[in-house]
Protein: Adenine phosphoribosyltransferase
Organism: Albidovulum denitrificans
Amino acid sequence: MKTVKDYIRTIADFPHEGIMFRDVTTLFADARGFRMAIDQLLNPYAGMRIDKVVGLEARGFILGGAIAHQLSVGFVPIRKKGKLPGAVISQAYTLEYGEAVMEVHDDALQAGEKVLIVDDLLATGGTCEAGIRLCERLGAEIVGCAFVIDLPDLGGRALLEKLGMKVHVLCDFEGA
Ligand code: PRP
Ligand code: MG
């Protein structure tokens, strides 16, 4: 029986030399793999109240859309700077080299709403931390952060747990 991890392809030296890129397009392209991933991402939240699913650009949109549909709730995108058309709030975060900014529409979440944050991969946790801060600034309550892949060597899980988050991952790749 194939696991979610078995559907993920590794491409060496992308986007630059020395990086082992974990490619989820092969997981998403497979009907069984994709459904397995969505079902497993949702597993811990059965019976819990979730008002909205928040997806982090870009692959978090693919997962988050499918999860929101499955739960029959709305989907909210958190995007890189300058992509959202309406009034936004912004949050800077640290990248390997330099800084980037994530944004959410300022009316996308209501105070007290319970949200699930979704992305494909957890590395340093910087991207998700920015997403958490944006959701919290809008008064939402984060039920959990769910990822297909964790790269444990990069410490993202520990960072998010320090922020009080419940982190759910489907598989990890050591030595990333
Ligand atoms: C990747 C990945 C996560 C993020 C994780 O996205 O999809 O969103 O990095 O890294 P972190 O935990 O160190 O923040 P990327 O920034 O490459 O952008 P993309 O999803 O738009 O391709
Ligand atoms: Mg991303």
